[in-house]
Amino acid sequence: MVSQRVKEISYAIREIAAVANNVAKSGKKIYHLNIGDPVIYDFNTPEYISQALADASFNGKNFYVDSLGALELREELSKTLKKSYNINVNADDILATSGVTEAIFFIIATLLENKNEILIPGPSYPLYINYAKFFDGIPVEYELDELNDWEPNIEDLRNKINDKTKAILICSPNNPTGVMYSEKMLKEIINIAGEYNLPILSDEIYDQIIYEKPFSSPAALSNDVPVIGLNGFSKSHLATGWRLGYMYYHDPENKLEDLKTGIAKLARARLSASSVAQYAAIEILKNPGTHTKEMVNKLKERRDYSYNRLRKIEGITCVKPNGAFYLFPKLDFEEFTKWKDDKDFAIDLLKTTGICGVYGSGFGDYGTNHVRFTFLPKIEILEEVYNLLENFLIKAH
Ligand SMILES: Cc1ncc(COP(=O)(O)O)c(C=O)c1O
Questions:
Q1: Is 177 close to ligand 1, i.e. is its CB under 6 Å away?
Q2: Which of 2, 213, 215, 379 reaches 20 to 30 Å from 150, CA-CA?
Q3: Model confidence over 191-216: pLDDT tens digits?
Q4: 126 lines ligand 1 (CB under 6 A)
Q5: Whether 177 and 71 share a structural domain
Q6: CATH number of domain containing 16
Q7: Residue 31 is part of which domain span?
Q8: What's the gap in Å between 233 CA and the centre of ligand 1?
Q9: Ligand 1 contact via 89 beta carbon (within 6 Å)
Q10: Residue with the nearest Cα to atom 4 of ligand 1?
């Protein structure tokens, strides 16, 4: 009944949640450190944003909009890209999507077939792997080097390019490592893409969730290499459930005409992204508010707390994240012989303590021996979590 391509989909972030639901049935308190959704923690969608969504519906914006997205939204996004990153993208080169998720789906569906390849960071956000395989492509992971603060291993990236390669994907700030690549590294990747005539796909969903350094826009760093930027309203504007994102083409030499035409065709086949969310998003762009900054301030404290607790635990090492809201510690399984791998560890941790993290191998081969914890919960909760984790690991020595 079920196609092989669907059987092969795996999404560890949600799969561990299913195990957590079973554990919860026994009455155990669950600490959800698995899902990157600020709205389910104490980051509420600001009232003016909820109001904008209601207003959009009351003002009659309940129809199918243009498949590329409402023109007013795309014009406003064009102004925002200019203002934030000084890049010139006109409204026709922007497409509103049902989250970055749909944008990734569109691009990969249009780019890949017959075992063509896409270079993705490893460890990887699972969606890239799933969609690449779903469309009969091959996701090829280039190494993010943990010993070099998770920066891409540029030689590994270069060595993995061949005549089947169709694009290089970057995700900075990164999920799951939480690290933002340096500007120097981004320039090197752009140069390599130029050398091999490949477009860059840049997942920028965490561009505003950054702690120390400013965000470097790959499109702003590129003169002629096409960059397809992906972003949305889920994280920075606390609207994960609205399912609204967008993609933009920074393509000064018109190298992406075919791809753009293909993606537009695919977009028409699914009618449109949510109309009310799009009209409400115009209001957010015109009046970005203070919620993102406030969220980042709170998160910084939670990151510091979590990082300081983690690094004191024997058998764990962790790179300090400077973006997004994840920590990706490594477990020394030579010390912790009790567990056979990261999945075994994550499930035992969940059953014993109620702490629900995501096993690292769910983020591809480079994620093995790790676990991903979000630091979205309040400090009081994080304190309980790290006390439990510390005890759990002390007993394992
Ligand atoms: C790197 C990355 N890209 C994309 C998404 C999905 O974003 P959206 O809600 O816009 O579909 C996520 C969600 O966690 C993510 O971490």
A1: no
A2: 379
A3: 999 999 999 999 999 999 999 999 99
A4: no
A5: yes
A6: 3.90.1150.10
A7: 4-44+291-391
A8: 10
A9: no
A10: 100
